[in-house]
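ok so I'm stuck.
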Amino acid sequence: MNQHHESTGPVDEQQITLRGPAELADALPYLMGFHPNDSVVMVALHGGRGRFGGRLRLGIPQAPQEWASVAEQLAECLIKGSERRGERPDAIVIFLCQDPAEGENGGQVMERLRPLAQRLRTACGALDVPVLEALCISDGRYWSYCCPDKRCCPSEGNQMALPGTSVMAAAAAYAGIQVRGTLREMEARLEPLNTGAAADQLRALDSAGAELVPKILDEAGRKDVARETLVLARRLMKRLREASVAGPSASDINDDRLISHDEAAALILGLQDRETRDRAAEWMEGAEADSALRLWRALARRCVAPYEEHAAAPLTLAGWVSWSTGDEPGARVALGLALRVDPGYTFAQLLHEACNQGLDPETLRRCLRGERSARTGRRLHRTDQNTRPRTVRPTATRRRRAPSGSTRPETAAARRRPGQVSPGRRGSRSGR
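replied:
not stuck anymore, here's the structure
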């Protein structure tokens, strides 16, 4: 079960009127930006006309004994989160989306998840927010848990509308809203390789760990590794930027071919250092963002077993760049995976929470721009000092005895103590 929920704030878009369960079911992927597999989705409604507000998604817990506590947490999270954004929901719509298991059909999925739907309805009602509709979507059909009328909601369910034929699809096309496929497909772009290349990547990670960990544990060596990591990342970003871009799957395959196992291993190990990762986070906009995102995705795919936890750094960077460039669905998927491989990864936790609360990423962008500008200013200042010509004093007619003691000025610079790096099972981990 993924303990880290995903939510979005209300979006000001053109008004669309949805009538009945059929149009609600068809609208779900457009509300989320993807087709949510194996998910609980809750959507807040506001006002008498039921304007869509905050959205929340969580993987369906496999253990039914968890359903009661999870339902209470989800209801509280959506309602309290909406209140923090300034508007308490007037109602809630619930979606339970899950494909049938082997030997199971959609109707059986609906009945199996009925207790979860009831738990969610009860949890929302306990907070004085009614559930207007609760739908199960499975195997291309939908069922309503709220409608008892068999004439409109038969036991065998209703067929979903053909893709692209609904009023929501037409409005989304007009507004330029895209559905990025299924959640499973989006996660697959970021998951470790499961091909024959995984063994070669594992050997490269082992070799890089043996070489880099001793350097990272040394003060001087750590700075060298940080510098080399950033130089290599920039070189690979340039290589990716100059390569042609095809569709998502073809682009990922091509990106994997452009990055060697040794290069990927060196970057993965180098990004475990918190300060190095934070420097890499500055590639978040403009021409750098696209190539950086492709690089972070490729590195996440190279974190093969037993290096899965090392993927937290590139996954978090991928989530940050996605959020910074306006791709909130992509950001939530990447950050959710980062927290799945390392639930205690602080940077991912903070970004995930900020994205879910609907905060503006510009606040963090300004901070990172300031860090880069300050560092550039310090570097230019040092260069200016080193290249400034010395002042030559004119020879005096009377020789004077030089005063005793050193006349060389000394500059004291406060240094921030670097984060400690501890060796992991294979490789290294550091502050987060």
